[in-house]
Amino acid sequence: xxxxxRHPLTNAVGLSVFSGFYAVIFLGFSGLIKSQIGCSVxxxxxxxxxxxxxxxxxxxxxxxxxLTGLVLALLLIKHKPxxxxxxxxxxxxxxxxxxxxxxxxxxxxxxxxxxPVGVIGKFAFFALVNWAVVxxxxxxxxxxxxxx
Length: 148
Fold this sequence. Notes:
Elements: H1 2-5, H2 8-28, H3 43-53, H4 56-77, H5 84-114, H6 119-145
Helix pairs in contact: 2-4, 2-6, 4-6, 5-6
């Protein structure tokens, strides 16, 4: 498994597919991402619904695509294979990210069960947070661990 992650191209392809999927959702289907303003009893979700109505999710998606492009540029500039130490760190970070994503999916499920109105807004919030965490974590990994 570590041999698979030794190559920065693996990281680049994985991040590109991940970002491409979310970009299609938030930019390609942005007209379908509508919220239900006033349905939520919690002020946080009311504020988030207001942001969705203002199409802020498109701006966030463009910013995340720019950050993804920066990560891809850094991966292509320093395209030498990772050493064993950095590969192990990358695999551990990936394992932690999977565990945190599964926990976040469970929390999303609980939030939707708690208040079932505005499911699209809640899913959009989860997806944007997930996308941002993955892109920023990958950028941090490249800037901190690969700066040699």
